[in-house]
Amino acid sequence: MRQGFQPLSDFREQLSLEIGRFYSQQSSDVKSHIPFFFKALHELV
User: Fold this and answer.
1) The model's pTM
2) Cα dist. 3→6, 7, 10, 39, 45 in Å?
3) Backbone φ and ψ of 41, nearest 5°
4) How far apart are the C-alpha atoms of 39 and 17, rounded to whole Å?
5) Do residues 37 and 25 lie in contact, with contact meaning Cβ atoms separated by under 8 Å?
6) N or C: which end of the chain has fewer CB within 10 A?
7) What is the largest CA-CA distance in the chain?
8) Tens of pLDDT along 4-39?
């Protein structure tokens, strides 16, 4: 494994935690969850 990279399983776990954290901070309006998530994700990359 190259230095500075984490195993794929660690990445998936971190991504799942971030998705959970994101959803816990959103309003209860389900219609807005997915678009806001992808907007926030896009801003991170």
Assistant:
1) 0.47
2) 8, 11, 15, 30, 20
3) -60, -45
4) 17
5) no
6) C
7) 42
8) 777 888 998 998 888 888 777 766 766 566 777 788
